[in-house]
C-alpha cells in the first residue's frame, strides 16, 4: 500500500486512540462490538482452525486470536499491523501466549510468511488506496501465502455509503475475480447490512 495511504490509516487510528480512550472496538473503527463479533463468527465458521498456523493481516489488537481460541487450539497465530500501539497492547494482553502468538509491525500488503495454513483479513482491506489494483493484488498475495484457505471480508458497495477513508466493493465482481484464482470460492453475506465475506479454499 502506498505510504501516503498507509499514513492516512495510521492517523485515523491514532485520532481514535485519543477520542475513544480504552474502547478497543471504536478505536479499531467498528460501529459496535456486534459488528466486529459477527464478522469473527463468520470467519470461525468458515474453517477448522485447530492445529493451524493463522496469519491475521491487519490484526488490530489481535482479538481474533481470543475469539478463535475459544473453540480451536491454534498451532500458531501471526498478527500483522502497522499501528504500534495496537501490537504493544496485544502483546501485553497475550503475554502468556507468546509461544503461539507473534505480532509483526509491517505493511500487510508486503508481509509474507512460509508454512501458513490460513490467511485472514478482517476489516483491513476496506481502506481506500490510490492503486486501483490494490484489492486484486492483495487477494492474489494472500492466496499465494495460504496453504489451505484465505478468508476476508469487505464492505458491500450496494449498501455502504461513500466515504473518504474506506470503500465498498461489488461482491459479485470480487467473487468472480477470486474464481479466476481458485476453484472453490464461497461468498457469505446476509450477516450484516453492509458486509460480505469471501472464503477461498485450496484443494
Ligand atoms: C478495522 S481494523 C480491524 C482490526 C481487526 N482485524 C479486527 O477485526 O478487529 C483494520 C486494521 O487494519 C490495519 N491496516 C490497514 N491497512 C494496513 C496496512 N497497509 N498495513 C498494516 N496494517 C494495516 C489497521 O491499522 C487496523 O488495525
The best one-word shape is globular
Query: Beta-sheet strand percentage?
Result: 15-25%
Largest sheet: 7 strands, mixed
CATH class: Alpha Beta
Low-confidence runs of at least 5 consecutive residues: none
GO molecular function, one term: methyltransferase activity
Keywords: Methyltransferase, Transferase
InterPro entries: Methyltransf_25, SAM-dependent_MTases_sf
GO biological process, one term: methylation
Account of the protein in words:
- The model has no long low-confidence stretch (mean pLDDT about 95).
- The protein is globular.
- It has seven helices and seven strands; from the N terminus they run H-H-H-E-H-E-H-E-E-H-E-H-E-E.
- The chain has a single domain (about 5-200), classed as Rossmann fold (3-Layer(aba) Sandwich), CATH 3.40.50.
- It has about 200 residues and is of the alpha/beta class.
- Helices cover about 35% and strands about 20% of the residues.
- The relative contact order is 0.15.
- Strands 3-2-1-4-5-7-6 form a seven-stranded mixed β-sheet, sandwiched between helices.
- The two termini are about 30 Å apart.
- Bound molecules: S-adenosylmethionine (SAM).
- It comes from Vibrio paucivorans.
- This is Class I SAM-dependent methyltransferase.
- GO terms for molecular function: methyltransferase activity.
Compact description:
With 203 residues, the protein is an alpha/beta fold.
Could you give the topology of this structure?
Elements: H1 3-19, H2 24-27, H3 33-45, E1 53-57, H4 63-69, E2 76-81, H5 84-93, E3 101-105, E4 116-121, H6 134-145, E5 146-155, H7 171-181, E6 184-188, E7 195-201
Parallel strand pairs: 1-2, 1-4, 2-3, 4-5
Antiparallel strand pairs: 5-7, 6-7
Helix pairs in contact: 6-7
S-adenosylmethionine is lined by residues 1, 6, 9, 13, 28-29, 36, 58-60, 63-64, 81-83, 86, 107-109, 122-124, 127.
